[in-house]
Amino acid sequence: MIVQNLFDSSGNWIAFRAGSHVYSPDGDWIGWLPWNDDDVVDTHGRYLGTIFYGNRLYHVLGKPYRGYPGYPVYPGYPGYPGYPGYAGYSPLPPGTRDVAFSTSTR
Residue 105: inside a domain, yes or no? Predict the structure, then answer.
């Protein structure tokens, strides 16, 4: 399975995607992509963020509610993907902020 590493605007590794599921750097399941696009919801079905530029995870402010996405089957532990390093700074697109993980998401 191909792993897509996700970073914040400062270039810090904050998550990775394996298939349609998103995990913390520790391998904890934190979300998934229910609509086959770049929008990520947390494990409770709340909007978490959107993948930009192929490797950045940003929260879009004022994102319209898309409805409850349902609940997928628990994906299990993906294993440790290895540390990808630092991605470098990337300015935030207008109307976005870095994803703020809560204790219920991580």
Answer: no
